[in-house]
Design brief:
Number of strands: 12
Strand order of the largest sheet: 1-2-3-7-6-5-4
Structural class: alpha+beta
Bound molecules: biotin
Oligomer: single chain
Number of helices: 4
């Protein structure tokens, strides 16, 4: 996987571990010193991979690409609204570049093909101990899952081997995703999510469909009409337009 960076080597530094608990946890707990490059930590296997809402991200040898990127914000940066949506968009573009058809984004940031989950994204913010604000962007992409893999996802999961005649190597996929991440994060840093909102909405898996949001305390149903400039989900409900902020909610077709 080490050759993944190619000409991106001036922008990213890449560390690859044969095994670790979670690449997100590693970067959160032990962020490497800032050498001006964006640090990427990939693991061939995670023993305690984490997903959103306290879920587990399972891995099997050779079954997927799992890595995290430490993205440091400039000191004046505002709260990074919409960041996780931007990451989903970058993953979607990389997949489209490979020829994957029908890539869709499920708010806030699952990547779906034929309604099934191909990739997951976990963005966690880190700050403190004299360090500036940073985001640890964790990405897991299913490459070739074992036939008997049991993954708990309401509409099922899919891998790249089922979408492409010749799926990419993990290193090629990593290079493509990092190139897109660099491109989209630069746009995001200079112009915010507003500049990328249209591209996200073009891939919205639930555009104009009835959905329900499962929250901790209550359930909300409505028609998904897109996202706003902060990346909040917009639902048309009988009571009017409602904004749903990223958090512990999940989106299901109603
Ligand atoms: C989700 O779909 O709930 C998010 C899954 C994120 C998984 C990736 S794999 C690399 C990184 N390390 C982790 O522990 N999680 C993320």
């Amino acid at each position: 996987m080490a050759e993944a960076l190619g000409e991106l080597a001036g922008v990213f530094s890449l560390e690859i571990l044969p095994e670790c608990d979670s690449t997100n946890s590693r970067l959160l707990d032990n962020p490497p010193p800032d050498d001006g490059r964006v640090h990427v930590l990939a693991a061939e296997r995670q023993t305690a991979g984490r997903g959103r809402r306290g879920r587990v991200w399972q891995s099997w040898p050779g079954a997927g690409l799992t890595f995290s990127v430490l993205w440091r914000f400039t000191p004046a940066a505002h709260v990074p609204a919409g960041l996780s949506l931007v990451v989903g968009l970058a993953v979607a573009r990389a997949l489209e570049e490979l020829g994957v058809e029908g890539v869709a984004l499920k708010w806030p940031n699952d990547v779906l093909i034929q309604g099934k989950k191909l990739a997951g994204i976990l963005v966690e913010l880190s700050s403190g101990r004299g360090r500036g604000l940073a985001a640890v962007i964790g990405i897991g992409i299913n490459l070739r899952m074992p036939a008997d893999a049991a993954v708990d996802y309401p509409t099922g999961v899919i891998d790249l081997a089922s979408c492409l005649a010749s799926p990419p190597s993990p290193s090629r996929l990593l290079g493509l995703v990092l190139a897109q991440l660099q491109r989209f994060l630069e746009i995001y840093a200079s112009a915010g999510f507003t500049a990328l909102r249209g591209a996200w909405q073009q891939r919205n898996a639930f555009a104009d469909l009835p959905v329900r949001i499962l929250g901790e305390a209550h359930e909300l149903t409505g028609t998904c009409v897109g996202v706003d400039d902060d990346g909040a989900l917009l639902l048309q409900t009988p009571e009017g337009l409602r904004r749903v902020l990223s958090g512990d909610v999940s989106l299901r077709l109603a």
